[in-house]
Structures are given as C-alpha cells and as structure tokens.
Design a protein that fits this description.
This protein is of the alpha/beta class. The chain contains 19 helices and 14 strands.
Length: about 425
C-alpha cells in the first residue's frame, strides 16, 4: 500500500448540523433501503487495481435491487478529505466513502458517519483487532474494514550471507547478532538497519512490544503513557537500534525509505510490506543487485514474541447525511464480504479478518505478511488523537531521542505533557 496514512484533521469547519443528523442508519436501520440511486466515493487504488471487484459489488446490489443506479467517483489520497469535508457541509453527501483507517476517528468524533450494525457484515466477528478499533468509537461501529497492509522486516540476503548468515533470523537476539556482524564488516558509514528516527510506526511497535502504550483510557479520559516503565523500555531499545545501526540523517522520516534502501547503503529495513519490492524496482535499484536478493521476514520483538505491527488500511463508511444508508451498507458488504476479500487478497492485500488471514499463512508467498499481521496495534481512539498527529508530537519526541538532544526519559515526559493537553479535546 504505497501511501502514508494520516489522521483526519481537516473537519473542524464541518457544519454542526452533521451531528444533529445522527441516529441509527445504514446497517443499523432500514433508512434508504428502497433508494433508487447510490453514490460511492473510492480512492484511485480501487479504480486502478481492482475495478472488477467494484463491478462485482455493483452487480450484486443491482441483482437484488433492479433498476438502482450506482455512481462512482474516485479520488487521490492527498485531496480526498478536503473534498469530503466540503460536501459533508451540504445536503449532497455521498452514500459510501473510503477512508484511511487513521482518518476515521476525527469524523466519528464529529458525528459525520452513521452507526452501523456490525452483525450485518460478513466475517465481522473475526475482524482484525487493529482494523476493528479503527471503526469503533464509544462502543458503536461507524465503518467496515476494507483491506489492510502490514509491516515486515526486509533484508539483503547477499549482505547477510557475506557475514555467514544464510537464513532470516527467528529471534531478536539472532537479528542483532547478524546486524552487528554486518555493521562491523561494512563500516560506520553504512546502515546495517536503515531506521528513520521519526518513523513513529516502527518506534511504537517497540513500545507495544515492551508492554507500553501511547496512551491509556480510564473512566472515559485518556492519559499519555510514554513515560511508563514499559514504554520507556521500548523507546530505549528503539534508541539502541538507531544508535547502533542507523548512520544516516537522524532527522528524517520514513517517506522515502524505499528510495534510500535502493541506493545500496543499507542492509535492512522494517517497513510496509510493499517497500522491499519497490526498492528493487529498476527505477529505484541503483545497485542493480537487489532483484532476487531481498527477503521479507516476520520482525522478531525484543520481548521474544513477534513484533506487534501497525496495520495500515482502508475502511468504508456511510455519511450520516446519506439518504440511502441501508442500500449503502448492502453495497459495502458486497465489496468487503467473503468473495470480495478473496479478490482483494489475490491483488496482494491483507484481508480484513482473521479467518481469511489464516489461509494466507499456508502460502509461502503470503505467509510472512500474514503472520506478521496477527500481532498488531492501533492508535488510541481518543477524541483528540487527530490533534496529536497534526502536532507531530511523536515525531518530535523521536527526533529528540535519536539526535541525542534529550534523554529518552525527558523526551517521553515532554511528549506526555503535550499529548495530555489535546488528547481529550473534541
């Protein structure tokens, strides 16, 4: 999934009337069950990569509702939310919208989406935990997980073999032992593990692996917990990785990681599953040696278990102003249901549920990302989380840690204070 998922933060100007339109709808009621027209907003990913699955969903709905007209509009990720915010302030809202899973929270908090009956969607009792969290707010379901993309480790087999390591590590101890050998052989200008300091998705995996969390909820209030002993343990190990193996610019984020990897001065990355394959594309491979030399493997955690990973992905939601909520829910189930998931998996996506995910573990081509995705985490579903992301509090903390500007303890304490100021604010 070649995109960066960001929290929705551009909806502050949405009309207050949206919240007033709330109530059970979509999968929660029969509102709009006899609608004659449906408008579906998807991203260009669907248009470019699986248009036949969209057509199949259309056909299923039209078979049950003869004469219904289904309109499709496709948007790029950078401009999607601005257009959605504008239309949600009118009475011409679409009936189905695709959202990045970290974009959902801001809209749910503002009351922009209709609550849905989870039981009416295929495999909903087995939705992946991280994806289920992304569509749930205050005990209600406001969306349906569509598909997912996980994170895996990827390294150069040829570089590993040059120090006598012929198979991917199964434990964190094996991993660091191999990286130590690689680092020693390649020298201090080489990145045995290219780990951008500001990559909070990776850093928080260390935090959750250690039993920590970004924030915890009690009595309806959220409180930052990066200063907890467990979180500090995870952040300290992340700093050890950056100090030991990352010898590039320690103010960078992960946005161009696959490009840097393709330049041949790194032996390993911990990244979205598509990044290794993209690095070895001839357009990005500046060494001419990456094709066939890169290997994905499940990232082992310092805890002794598989590293918990952030699951990026998309959800589908029904705007509360839709006049065709029940029909919209039917269309969503047609696309995300059992047959749709098989089609999405065939396109290289992870499914939205544990049942289908288990089948991917039996195929050598998909076993690594499927196994990695079993252990996952998601952002705090707090009303002010969008403000935390907008302020880049985690990235600032990690840069301070990675560059040595602050100690782990001081940086975490400052981050907690900044998070606590906004995390409970709607």
């Amino acid at each position: 999934m070649k995109r960066k998922l960001t929290a929705a933060i551009g909806i502050a100007g949405m009309m207050v009337s949206i919240a007033a339109c709330g109530g059970e709808g979509g999968g929660g009621s029969d509102k709009g069950a006899d609608a004659k027209e449906l408008t579906v907003w998807l991203t260009v990913d669907a248009q470019n990569n699986w248009p036949e699955l969209v057509k199949a969903a259309d056909a299923a709905v039209k078979k049950k509702h003869p004469g219904v007209k289904i309109n499709h509009e496709y948007y790029g990720w950078p401009d999607k939310n601005a257009k959605l915010d504008a239309v949600l302030a009118t009475d011409k809202a679409p009936d189905v919208v695709e959202m990045g899973n970290t974009e959902m929270l801001g809209y749910m908090v503002k009351g922009a989406f209709a609550p849905l009956d989870q039981a009416k969607f295929d495999n909903s009792d087995a939705w992946l935990d991280g994806l289920k969290a992304s569509v749930t707010y205050e005990g209600k379901t406001y969306g349906v997980p569509y598909y997912a993309g996980g994170r895996v480790a990827n390294w150069r087999k040829d570089v590993a073999a040059s120090v006598g390591v012929k198979s991917a590590p199964k434990t964190y101890k094996e991993l660091t032992a191999a990286l130590d050998k690689i680092q020693k052989k390649q020298g201090d200008k080489y990145n045995a593990w290219y780990q951008p300091t500001r990559d909070w998705y990776a850093a928080m995996s260390f935090v959750y692996d250690a039993g920590g969390a970004i924030a915890t909820e009690s009595g309806g209030q959220w409180k930052a917990s990066l200063s907890s002993p467990e979180s500090l343990k995870g952040l300290t190990e992340f700093k050890n990785v950056v100090d030991s193996y990352m010898h590039g610019d320690k103010t960078k984020d992960e946005s161009d990681r696959y490009i840097v990897y393709g330049q041949g001065k790194s032996a390993m990355i911990f990244a979205a599953a598509w990044e290794g394959a993209t690095a070895e594309d001839p357009k990005n491979d500046k060494t001419g040696k990456l094709k066939g030399n890169l290997e994905n493997f499940v990232m082992p955690g310092p805890s002794g278990k598989n590293m918990p990973v952030f699951l990026g992905g998309s959800d589908l939601a029904v705007p509360v102003k839709s006049d065709a909520q029940a029909l919209a829910a039917e269309w969503i189930n047609a696309l995300t249901g059992s047959s749709g998931q098989k089609g999405l998996m065939a396109k290289g996506n992870l499914p939205n549920n544990k049942t289908d995910l288990a089948t991917l573990k039996n195929d050598p081509k998909t076993a690594v990302p499927a196994t990695a995705a079993e252990s996952n985490w998601f952002v705090p579903m707090a009303p002010g989380w969008g403000q935390v992301e907008k302020a880049q509090i985690l990235q600032t903390m990690l840069q301070s840690i990675g560059t040595g500007k602050k100690s782990v303890e001081a940086a975490a304490k400052d981050a907690d204070a900044a998070i606590d100021k906004v995390i409970n604010t709607k």
